[in-house]
Predict the 3D structure of the following.
Amino acid sequence: MYWTLELASYLEDAPWPASKDELIDFALRTGAPLEVVENLQQLEDEGELFETIEDIWPDYPTKEDFFFNEDEY
């Protein structure tokens, strides 16, 4: 399983929190690439809900990861 920013972006509008099956259904309905569906299928399903993309991809970059001053723009 591998994630990229492009692949993860397909889950930004997912109905969080969501189960594994709900995320797979969302990805299929929104036309996400097959790699997104395959990555979701490889997740361990313990019956718990995923709260955010960080639960799926812990290294998902957030705004804090970028070093720029928003006040300058």
